């Protein structure tokens, strides 16, 4: 989250801090802590902040005259796919190995 591949966008640590705070209600909800039944609110806040960052990247590139939708999605894929490929082999077999409760 901290690395920026676009030199036109400077790193903003306060936004990373807000995103980290937005994730806390989700973690607390899944941990079963009382008073955190609305973990989805943290997800909503995280998505709003991410949308702001993505929109600012697109607008700055459009203003500079070098926006490409293909390059935009290529950067998203380079960021998201490694985590997907790393976590999928662990997550996919887990339902078959007794990690889920039986009815």
Give a structural overview.
- By secondary structure, this protein is mainly alpha-helical.
- The protein has one domain (13-87).
- 65% of the residues lie in helices and 0% in strands.
- The protein contains three helices and no strands.
- Helix 1 packs antiparallel against helix 2.
- The longest helix has 26 residues, at 39-64.
- It is flat and about 55 Å long.
- The protein starts with 12 loop residues before the first helix and ends in a 12-residue tail after the last helix.
- The model has no long low-confidence stretch (mean pLDDT 83).
Blueprint of the fold:
Layout: H1 13-30, H2 39-64, H3 69-91
Q: What general form does the structure show?
A: flat
Q: Order of SSEs, N→C?
A: HHH
Helix content: 55-70%
Biggest β-sheet description: none
- Structural class of the helix and strand makeup? mainly alpha
Average pLDDT, rounded to a whole number, is 83
What's the Cα radius of gyration?
A: 18 Å
Kindly estimate the percentage of residues that lie in beta strands according to DSSP. Answer: under 5%
Tell me the number of structural domains: 1
**DSSP helix count?**
3
Distance between the termini: 39 Å
Spans where pLDDT lies below 50 across 5 or more residues: none
Overall strand count: 0
């Amino acid at each position: 989250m901290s690395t920026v591949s676009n030199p036109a966008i400077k790193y903003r640590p306060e936004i990373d801090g807000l995103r980290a705070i937005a994730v806390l209600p989700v973690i607390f909800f899944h941990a079963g802590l009382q008073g955190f039944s609305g973990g989805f609110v943290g997800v909503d806040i995280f998505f709003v902040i991410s949308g702001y960052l993505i929109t600012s990247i697109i607008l700055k590139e459009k203003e500079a005259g070098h926006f490409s939708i293909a390059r935009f999605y290529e950067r998203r894929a380079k960021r998201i796919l490694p985590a997907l490929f790393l976590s999928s082999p662990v997550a996919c077999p887990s339902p078959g190995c007794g990690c889920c409760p039986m009815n």
